[in-house]
Each structure stands twice: as C-alpha cells, then as structure tokens.
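Closing statement on the magnesium ion sub-project.
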Amino acid sequence: MNRGFFITGTDTEVGKTWCSLGLIARLRQQGHTVVAMKPVASGCAPTAAGLRNDDALKLQAQASVALAYETINPYAFEPAIAPHIAAELAGQRIELSTIVTSYRRLAAKAEISVVEGVGGWRVPLNDAQTVADLAAILGLPVILVVGLRLGCINHALLTAESIRASGCTLAGWIANSVEPRMAQQEDNVHAIAERIGAPLLGGVPYLPQGDAEAIAACLSLPR
Ligand SMILES: Nc1ncnc2c1ncn2[C@@H]1O[C@H](COP(=O)(O)OP(=O)(O)O)[C@@H](O)[C@H]1O
Ligand SMILES: [Mg+2]
C-alpha cells in the first residue's frame, strides 16, 4: 500500500473534498490508519481559534488520528480567491518547505495520508511554484477527480498529461457526478477511460449530500 495519495481535480468545485472523505472512509474500512491534509485553503472563516476552512475541518474529522488544525492546514486565507493572491494580500508567501514540514509530522502518525490540493493541478502557490510542484515534492501518487460536466473530457485529459509532465504518477481517477442529469454521462466516462491511461477507481453518482460512506462504497482501490 502506498504512503498516501494527492487528490487533485479537473477544476475547483468538482468533488475533491467529497471524494477525499470517501477515500479516507474506504481506507479505514480496509483497516488502515489514515490522516488527511489540506495544505493550502482560501475561503476560511475567522474563529476565536484562528482561520478555519470547511474542507480542512471535514478532513480532520474523517481521519482516524486527531491532529492539530495548524498541521492539517498550515496556510489558511480568508477570501475565497486564488491562493497565491490571497497569500500576497495577507502579506505571506506560501513556502513548500513549510508544507513539507507539516506533512512529515502528519504522515508519521498513520499508515496513509490523503492530501487534498487546492483548485486544479496548475494553480499557482507563489510566484514560482504550483500545486504540481507541491505534489511532486510530497512524492505522492495522484488521484484525479473528474467533475462530470460538459468539457470534462478535455479537462481530464489535459490534467492527466500535465500530471505526467510534472513527473508524478497518476494512480487513477474518479468519475464524480456533479450534475443530476448530465447528457451522455456514460459516453463521457467511457471516452475518458479509453484515453487517460490510468484506472477508473470508481464512479460516484449525484448524491443529495456528501456522505463519505456512500462515496466509499463506490470506490475500488488498488490493494
Ligand atoms: N457526487 C456528488 N453529488 C452531488 N453533488 C456533488 C457531488 N460531488 C460534489 N458535489 C457538489 O459540488 C460541491 C463541491 O464539492 P467539493 O468536494 O467541495 O469540491 P472541491 O473540493 O473540488 O472544491 C459540493 O458542495 C456539492 O454541492
Ligand atoms: Mg475542496
């Protein structure tokens, strides 16, 4: 079993968090201890304890080991905008070395780490680096969540190409229904499956709510 997975998506709002929660649930059902990380989050609420991001809180709750919020989400920014711009506005620079330090602390606590990216694969994190560089530095195999909607074939294939160009391994992809009735959905999934060169780990139907156990039941992971 791998040390973990880096979860990316064809875009923002395609189901990375929902699928990450399902993946954690599935891995836990298989008997593994799992920790999760959302290294960079823009779109955070101010609380007495500091800025808190909904994705990071959900990942924290789904993990099998309790960890400090700051370890799970070292970079939290209030506005829901591109992360490198949010960092600039906050007078910060996102440093991959800081994320790696948090990751090592977290990864030491469980068998498997699930790390959710931010936005898509080529989202800038600072003036020089992107999500792709972060995934490459962490050295984790990548799972691509494809939000099934018109245009997803192109986005899926472009992202797969870019993942490989970054020197990362595409471990598989998840076909996630983000629309209740997408025209020719099966044909779209088939078109991607034929061309992407990585296993389909599961098809997640359109669900009324983000139910980790229901999503877990849709996933079949390489043992
Ligand atoms: N399988 C699904 N069924 C129905 N709605 C979904 C599904 N997956 C995602 N969504 C919708 O898309 C939104 C974004 O999902 P999320 O996992 O937060 O995306 P990301 O992490 O990629 O930004 C969810 O809040 C939900 O409204
Ligand atoms: Mg998310």
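The mean pLDDT is 97. With this model delivered, the sub-project is considered complete and its resources will be redirected to Aim 3.
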